[in-house]
Specification:
The complex is a heterodimer. By secondary structure, chain A is an alpha/beta fold. Chain A has 13 helices and 11 strands. Chain A is elongated. Classes of the chains: A alpha/beta, B alpha+beta. Chain A: Its EC number is 2.1.1.386.
């Protein structure tokens, strides 16, 4: 949680714009944009800032955070809750965000099958025993398609004012590039990954040989996902404790789909009804040839739409007595409605019981009684 | 009358058991969108009221705070730190600085005769249940407050907490820390504890943790603390915070006809009440719209002419609260910048420039499609947020919340809405109980509560209340009883002569050609209904005008003579500009009472007589007539009512309506208003109002009142201390300035309608609305105040809202019982409604006056009208 302010502290001499922590997160975000993973886990997620940034990435459907400190996660975890907009305008994508309390030295089946696992400034906080288990847990057990590991480059410390030993008191070690790379290459070799090195936080001009302030290894799994392996592992008992879970509303959930669809249908039908009534009224006002005051508003787009629809007689809406009849086919032909449910059958199934239909189930019925107007 | 008045009126149930339909009853209302008192309005979905300007010092005035009752022996603890505590990191949303509950304003201690008891005695006992849960803490519970020092001094708050929590073993998992003040649920072993932490530079820092306070459960700091913890809990329950309340987005009520989505939720607060610390929970509904500001602008564009588009946008949008797509913050639209667009750049915190389009795309993956849309401007209310200047918002990324004026005018919509939001008592109680169930069934919440040693009672608070006797209605020698259950006497008094009828000798009736018939019918009907009231009436001067504002004005200029009693205008539409122009002319340039009525209201044969009756009564009041009275035993008392209207559109000026009774029977009222301009305090104007009212009283009574009782409405949450320390002294000053020997007794009562408090009457197993006249002055009142609740009105749908009365200054020596009875009596005296209303009549009159001035006239009306109820 403190990795951000420690950077801020050092900005008197070396100033990174944007701040280094942000650059690290942006690096991950760019990576996500490039590979478009569906399932992403952040190990050592701390204050959930990276997860928060990632939840806006439209490709991600499962987002998981893991940290050894539940209280640090809890402090800010609510930034991961769905926003009002997620309820107001549910999207096609489903998204589940879960936070687990646990250690990267332990295996839990909930971490299997990920596309991307990030370990931002994590490994240097691990005790020796934990660090030993780490490759087996992450690369051997979780075995995601991509792993990103970032850690301080100790060679850069000479440029950071006041840093005598490590950048943070909780750091158990800080590696130079050679140390990190040899560890990474060995890990990659053992678990059949390829690895590329990069970093964020450029060294000042003339000191390029020092390397990045933060060194990053991007590991890509060389073998395709093996299903059998994962299944056998799934039987393992869970060791992580769920701290937080948010299931975002999605149109994949029939409840939200139905709500959104019915809302759209009724709203669309209201507009058809209104323009139909306005049309009738303007006709009748014309013959009465009275009033300059009432201005009839035919929604331009809809009137055009209706004219086209009128060509197909069976789809024409009409008024009978106090009721406006709007054929379901007409409603279904509206782009938004159409898009929501795809097939006419599904459309009929979803709106059943939610709107009033004519006895033959052919048309939507709306009452024209409009008090007082 | 406008749609709003109609909507309100129609939304109200018909007058039960009478032939007079609700339509009729309300149709004679003025064209002013009027707020019908006495009946619950569908206000659940409303956005919070705009807050008036206040002196900057207000927030700090808690220094004057006193220890709560019942803990007088204890030291006044925790006061010095309260400011620091407000900065506490766990205050969500950067911390609301406002003290919405007016904590620490101790007014009761200054009122001598209620030191012992502030309770009334009269009436019959009734079993009540209120929407409060007791907060239970462990015996001997206390909150331990520590001061944390760093040596060498550490600046960054995050660093400070990181260093401190390296010692979590010592401190424990349950804590609250704001960088210098630490709260713990348990006591550390030593009073002063020294520990050492290491910074990343390997620097050793000495941290000294010193116990500064042991806070008892009822200390103000503790209460703030409870509220913070409780908000944490609401968040843990996955409720969404919008404004001050928390909502459950999982099971929304959708009203697709109007693109509305209603979230049920809770309004809650924990406070020290008379005997206990309690959690007050009420059901709140948030109206959201699945429509962005841009959608709204588009649809508006189709509805109005091009050149009126911008004005229309301003009119419809300014003042609305929007919710952004990318976070869950709400903003008030203060302005629209038509020259701005999303391609404009702004400077980020790190100094780099970025366009809105790029920013929202990059940060939140939000696509802005319309690059030519204007931008919205929101002025942050709090200066302390560190944000400089206004907030710029993109219409496409903002959802509308709440209802617009236009939607409130839509009767059908309000009906659809009220079906869902008006819960009858038992259902409301069930919904409130849900929050308790959520809390009890959530493991994490239970753990959090246990860690702090807190819990909530599982039952709602029950206690006895009193129902005071109903009043007798006196009308010109007749005495009427009304059915207390309905609190309405329209049926009983129909056809009875008025106390003081005013003759219609010389009056104008203006109408357009199309409305000739309805105007004529109105006259016929008035001829039928006025004789029994005792009103003498001659034929009106009928004037036909074109349906243009100028035509009306020209006709008025030409036809009004010094003898004209009143002008009646039949309007063909609820166009506000015409109404405003007529009212403005007749209230300022040419002071004549006027009555506007919509042709449509008159056109229904089945309600025509009822409408005519209502219009006749209203016209009579406007000309200075009197309808009925109740028995007022107090002599030589001047009752004053004050309410405010905050104009959010034009220059944000506030208007205070001021009315004062002129006679013993409370049937005549003098009125003035104070228009507050920028940089001027409203109270200066009120002082002038009070001075003229006293002069006027002297003219009427040949003496000065020996008592002045002020009912002050329109006081926002958190403004009480301003009132106590500024407004009351000004009133006293004003009274003193009248004369050396003049020393009247002053009582100032703050009236509050917007409450979360609800009462249910228990009849066996059933819960019902308490009957009108229910008085509560125990349990849910505040120990530091001389306050009480009255349920004065009756409602037919949903739950009745009590009104809260807080006597903040009182030298009257009147017993609490008398003040309560007088207040209830005054709720009978509002002439626009033949029944008991929610607030004392002077408050409602003041409200009507302020509303008329604020909406239509925008300046002080002619004083020649001041002795009449022309603003009804």
């Amino acid at each position: 949680m403190d990795k951000n302010f420690q950077e801020e502290q050092s900005k008197e001499m070396i100033k990174f714009t944007p701040p280094l922590s942000k650059q690290r997160y942006q690096f991950i975000k760019d990576l996500v944009e490039k590979y478009r993973p569906k399932k992403v886990a952040d190990l050592g997620c701390a204050d959930c800032k990276l997860l928060w940034m990632l939840k806006f990435c439209s490709c991600i459907e499962v987002l998981v955070g893991l940290d050894i400190s539940a209280s640090v996660m809890k402090e800010k975890m609510h930034i991961l809750s769905p926003l009002p907009v997620d309820y107001l305008e549910p999207t096609e994508r489903s998204l589940t965000v879960t936070l687990y309390h646990g250690s990267v030295a332990h295996k839990d089946p909930c971490m299997i099958g990920f596309d991307l696992v990030t370990c931002i400034e994590l490994i240097e906080h691990l005790e020796e025993s934990e660090l030993k288990k780490f490759p087996e847990v992450v690369f051997g057990f979780m075995a995601p398609s991509i792993v990103v590991i970032s850690t301080p480059n100790v060679e850069f410390n000479t440029l950071l004012p006041g840093v005598t030993l490590f950048r943070h008191p909780d750091h158990k070690f800080e590696w130079n590039r050679a140390q990190f790379q040899s560890w990474a290459l060995e890990t990659a070799r053992r678990y059949d990954y390829s690895v590329e090195f990069t970093g964020v936080g450029h060294s000042p001009r003339g000191m390029e040989n020092i390397g990045f302030c933060t060194q990053i290894g991007v590991f890509v799994r060389k073998y395709p996902q093996t299903g059998g392996f994962a299944v056998s592992e799934k039987s393992r008992e869970t060791v992580y404790k769920t701290v937080f879970k948010a299931v975002y509303p999605s149109l994949k959930d029939d409840k939200y789909l139905q709500n959104t669809l019915v809302g759209e249908v009724i709203f669309t039908a209201q507009i058809i009804k209104q323009s139909l009534l306005n049309h009738l009224m303007s006709e009748c006002e014309e013959c009465n040839n009275s009033t300059t005051e009432r201005k009839v508003q035919l929604q331009p787009c809809f009137s055009k739409y209706m004219r086209r629809l009128a060509v197909e007689k069976s789809m024409e809406s009409f008024v009978k007595g106090n009721v406006v009849y709007i054929p379901l086919k007409t409603v279904f032909s509206f782009p938004k409605v159409n898009q929501l449910c795809g097939t006419f059958e599904k459309f009929c199934k979803l709106i059943a019981g939610k709107v009033t239909l004519s006895s033959d189930g052919y048309a939507l019925m709306l009452n024209t009684e409009h008090e007082d107007e | 009358m406008t749609g709003r008045a109609r909507a309100r009126a129609r939304g109200r149930p018909p007058a039960l058991g009478t032939a007079l339909p609700a339509v009729g009853a309300a149709t004679a209302q003025e064209t002013v969108p009027s707020q019908l008192p006495g009946h619950q309005q569908p206000q659940k979905g409303r956005t919070p009221p705009p807050v008036a300007e206040e002196p900057a010092s207000r927030g700090r005035q808690r220094q004057t705070q006193n220890v709560l009752q019942g803990q007088k022996e204890r030291k006044p603890e925790g006061l010095q730190i309260s400011a620091g505590f407000q900065e506490l990191s766990l205050v969500d949303r950067g911390g609301r600085r406002r003290d919405f509950h007016d904590l620490g304003v101790n007014t009761r201690q200054t009122i001598e005769h209620v030191q012992e008891s502030k309770t009334g005695t009269s009436g019959s006992v009734i079993k009540l249940v209120a929407n409060y849960f007791r907060v239970m803490s462990r015996p001997q519970w206390a909150l331990y407050q520590y001061h944390v020092d760093y040596n060498p001094e550490m600046e960054a708050r995050r660093l400070r907490s990181a260093l401190l929590f390296q010692h979590e073993k010592l401190i424990g998992k349950t804590h609250a820390f704001d960088g210098s003040i630490l709260f713990l649920p348990r006591k550390l072993e030593n009073k002063v504890t020294e520990v050492f932490s290491k910074t990343r530079n390997g620097e050793n820092v000495k941290i000294t943790i010193t116990l500064t306070n042991e806070l008892p459960p009822s200390s103000p700091t503790c209460l703030q603390f409870y509220n913070i913890i409780f908000r944490r809990i609401l968040k843990m329950l996955n409720l969404q915070q919008i404004g001050r309340n928390y909502y459950n987005p999982k099971d929304p009520i959708t009203i697709p006809n109007h693109r509305l989505i209603v979230w049920p939720g809770f309004a809650s607060s924990i406070l020290q009440y008379e005997e206990n610390i309690m959690l007050c929970v009420d059901i709140s509904y948030k109206v959201l719209r699945s429509e962005t500001v841009l959608d709204f602008m588009y649809s508006l564009y189709y509805q109005v002419e091009e050149q009126r588009f911008r004005d229309a946008c301003v009119k419809e949008l300014i003042g609305l609260i929007v919710l952004t797509k990318y976070n869950n913050k709400t903003y008030r639209i203060d302005d629209i910048d038509w020259d701005g667009n999303p391609q404009r750049t702004f400077r980020k915190a790190d100094g780099s420039e970025i366009s809105f389009v790029d920013y929202y795309k990059r940060q939140y993956n939000q696509e802005i499609t319309d690059l030519n849309q204007p931008v919205l401007v929101s002025q942050p209310k709090r200066r302390a947020t560190g944000l400089q200047g206004p907030v710029i918002l993109i219409p496409e990324l903002c959802f509308l919340t709440g209802l617009t004026e236009k939607m409130r005018n839509d009767f059908n919509m309000m009906k659809d809405l009220s079906v869902h939001t008006r819960l009858p008592p038992e259902q409301r109680q069930r919904e409130i109980g849900r929050l308790r169930d959520y809390i009890q069934n959530d493991e994490n919440v239970q753990k959090e509560l246990q860690d702090w040693g807190l819990n909530f009672d599982s039952n709602l608070l029950s206690f006895p209340g009193r129902v005071v006797q109903g009043e007798k209605i006196f009308q010109s020698g007749n005495v009427f009883d009304y059915n207390p259950q309905f609190a309405d006497w329209s049926k009983e008094t129909r056809g009875a002569p008025l106390i003081c009828p005013k003759a219609l000798d010389n009056w104008l009736l203006m109408y357009t050609r199309r409305n000739y018939d309805v105007a004529n019918t109105l006259v016929q009907n008035l001829f039928k209904v006025t004789p029994s009231m005792g009103i003498k009436m001659r034929k009106a001067t009928m004037i036909e005008v074109d349906d243009r504002t100028e035509a009306y004005l020209r006709a008025l200029q030409q036809s009004i003579t010094p003898d004209t009693n009143i002008v009646v205008c039949v309007l063909s539409s609820s166009r506000k500009d015409k109404y405003d122009a007529i009212k403005k002319y007749l209230c300022t340039d040419c002071p004549i009472p006027s009555q506007c009525v919509l042709a449509r209201t008159l056109s229904k044969p089945q309600t025509a007589m009822a409408v005519a009756t209502k219009i006749a009564l209203q016209m009579n009041c406007k000309m200075g007539g009197e309808l009925w009275t109740v028995e007022i035993p107090l002599k030589q008392v001047m009752i004053v009512g004050i309410d405010c209207y905050h104009d959010t559109l034009a220059g944000k000026q506030s208007i205070a309506g001021f009315v004062a009774s002129m006679n013993q029977t409370m049937t005549r009222w003098f009125s003035r208003c104070a228009v507050q301009t920028r940089g001027q305090e409203l109270v200066d104007g009120l002082k002038a109002c009070l001075q003229t009212a006293l002069r006027e009283w002297f003219k009427w009574n040949k003496c000065l009142p020996s008592r002045v009782i002020v009912y002050r409405d329109g006081v926002g949450d958190g403004q009480l201390s301003t009132l106590v320390s500024y407004e009351v002294p000004q009133f006293l000053d004003c009274l003193k300035s009248v004369g050396k020997d003049y020393n009247p007794r002053l009582t100032v009562i703050v009236v509050k309608k917007r409450l979360n408090t609800r009462f249910f009457a228990r009849y066996g197993e059933a819960l019902k609305n308490p009957p009108p006249g229910t008085v509560v002055d125990v349990e849910v009142t505040r120990p530091e105040w001389y306050d009480f609740f009255i349920v004065s009105q009756a409602v037919r749908n949903g739950c009745v809202s009590p009104t809260h009365y807080n006597v903040i200054y009182d030298t009257s020596k009147l017993k609490p019982d008398h003040i309560q009875r007088l207040t209830y009596k005054l709720c009978h005296m509002y002439y626009n409604w033949p029944g008991v209303i929610r607030v004392p009549a002077p408050c409602q009159y003041a409200h009507k006056l302020a509303f008329l001035i604020g909406q239509s006239i925008h300046k002080e009306p002619n004083l020649l009208l001041s002795d009449r109820l022309y603003y009804l």
